[in-house]
Design a protein that fits this description.
By secondary structure, the chain is of the alpha/beta class. The chain folds into two domains: 151 residues, Alpha-Beta Complex (Aspartate Aminotransferase, domain 1), CATH 3.90.1150; 266 residues, Aspartate Aminotransferase, domain 2 (3-Layer(aba) Sandwich), CATH 3.40.640.10. The chain has twelve helices and 15 strands. Strand 7, helix 8 and strand 8 form a beta-alpha-beta unit. Helix 3 packs antiparallel against helix 9, helix 7 packs parallel to helix 8 and helix 11 packs across helix 12. The structure holds pyridoxal-5'-phosphate (PLP). Pyridoxal-5'-phosphate binds next to helix 5. The site of pyridoxal-5'-phosphate has 15 residues, from helix 5. Keywords: Aminotransferase, Pyridoxal phosphate, Transferase.
């Protein structure tokens, strides 16, 4: 048991010989549509420690992209999944019934921050949850327009991609996408798209833009089905909006009968120190889209919405694997574990400590332009200089590669932001060692450059 490893253990410089073999075959047999940060080839993992195929042990600050909130191979999740695997592996909710999915749905309705009574629709991924949320919004309102935000990431299927706007390469070559989608600026306090003096003003101006320019000049509100938003933008750069923004968006939505759809695919399940990120602002969406951490690493997604938003009639929407019994059993175990171990509180406490140290580090290097986040969803934006705020994208890639070679797994978000999103179970000392390693590598790069 190496669950309490405090530092990485690198025995062969990665990628080692076995890793190189796997990567060569990957290139031969897999469509190369992924943009990978470094050549990690995973062999196994335990909690927050990942082992590669050459025997190196890494400290994980990725959680498999915000999925392994309860840690990898969490024993409670493994046991629940294994026991369900032995009972039955699949029997399609689309045409039949089974209890484990109903038990999970009841649990999700209990914890989701939506108005009750509420209903669940199960999917297999985040993108599919967004698809379901889009269909439910259009169907229940009879309206066709969707307002989404620049910088957003909602997935890659055609409907979800139509809302995604975090990097042009994600859309390049796939148009035409869904019509009737309008993108508006997201209030990004460090780089406010409006000439605002402070974050609150940035939030107000973003809301004013939607009200005055979009609803006032482009689309009558009676044709807008939903505002779809990430409470904290993930892939777009770990961007926390100003405090007035989401409550203001909720008011605007209510005034016009527009549904609020919160994409909590990345922010959900205690990642930000609350079960769901909208709870930081007391906002109650009509629909929340979920996936990633929901089932402790098994594939599952869900949409939870108030009864008035979840009205699609029989035959109107379904998917063969949605609510798979093994994933559902794993999800029940993961959610119970999260509650039992008070992972939300743990994420909040460790997140505050991490933020504090990273903010202090701004006195040690001028390459950190901004540090932000909630819970263990933390972004460290690298800039070439604090005066110009010019994004340091190449430097970001170099820092991440160096951290990888030292045994720390961390990737980027947005243009030049280090994204810190470890398992919420990570050992405190291991986390703080990783944070020091990040600071050291940024400082080293700055020294080499100067
Ligand atoms: C906020 C958000 N929504 C949707 C998705 C899409 O999820 P998936 O990759 O499971 O389709 C992601 C994935 O990163 C995400 O971060």
């Amino acid at each position: 048991m190496t669950g309490k490893l405090k530092e990485p253990r690198i025995v062969v410089e990665p990628p080692g010989p076995r890793a190189r073999e796997v990567i060569e075959k990957d290139r031969m047999y897999l469509m190369q549509s992924f943009a990978r940060w470094y050549p990690l080839v995973v062999d196994r993992a335990e909690d927050y420690v990942v082992y590669d195929v050459d025997g190196n042990a890494y400290i994980d600050l990725n959680a498999g992209i915000a999925v392994l909130n309860v840690g990898s191979t969490n024993p409670a999740v493994v046991e629940a999944a294994a026991s369900q695997l032995r009972r039955f592996t699949h029997y399609s909710l689309t045409d039949f019934y089974y209890e484990v999915a109903v038990r999970l749905a009841e649990k999700l309705v209990g914890i989701a921050p939506v108005e009750k009574p509420a209903k669940v629709f199960f999917t297999n991924s985040g993108a599919e949850s967004i698809e379901a949320a889009l269909k439910a919004s259009r169907y229940s309102t009879g309206r066709q327009y969707i307002v989404a935000f620049l910088g957003a990431f909602h997935g890659r299927t055609m409907g979800a991609l139509s809302l995604t706007a975090s990097k042009p390469v994600q859309r390049l070559g796939f148009s035409p996408l869904l019509p009737s989608v309008v993108h508006v600026p997201y209030p990004y306090p460090y780089r406010c798209p409006f000439a605002a003096e402070e974050p609150g003003e940035c939030g107000e101006m973003a809301l004013g833009f939607v009200e005055e320019w979009v609803l006032g000049k482009l689309v009558d509100p009676s044709e807008v089905a939903a505002f779809v938003f990430e409470p904290i933008q993930g892939e777009g750069g770990y961007i926390v909006p100003p405090d007035n923004f989401l409550p203001g968006l909720e008011k605007l939505a209510r005034r016009h009968g527009i549904l609020l759809v919160a994409d909590e695919v990345q922010t959900g399940f205690c990642r930000t120190g609350r079960r769901f990120a909208v709870e930081h602002w007391g906002v109650k969406p009509d629909i929340v889209a979920l996936a990633k951490a929901i089932a402790g690493g098994l594939p599952l997604g869900a949409v939870v919405g108030s009864d008035k938003a979840m009205t699609i009639r029989p035959g109107g929407h379904a998917t063969t694997f949605g609510g798979n019994p093994v994933s559902s059993a794993a999800a029940i175990a993961a959610i119970d574990y999260m509650e039992r171990e008070r992972l939300c509180d743990r994420a909040a406490r460790l997140g505050e400590k991490t933020l504090k140290r990273l903010k202090e580090a701004m006195d040690e290097t001028s390459m950190i332009g901004d540090v932000r986040g909630k819970g263990l969803m933390i972004g460290v934006e690298l800039v070439k200089s604090r005066e110009t705020k010019e994004p340091a994208s190449r430097e970001l890639a170099e820092v991440l590669m160096r951290l990888f070679k030292r045994g720390y797994l961390v990737i980027g978000a947005g243009v030049s932001t280090i994204r810190i999103s470890p398992p919420l179970t990570i050992d405190e000392e291991a986390l703080m060692n990783a944070v020091e390693a990040i600071i050291e590598e940024v400082k080293r790069l700055e020294r080499e450059r100067d």
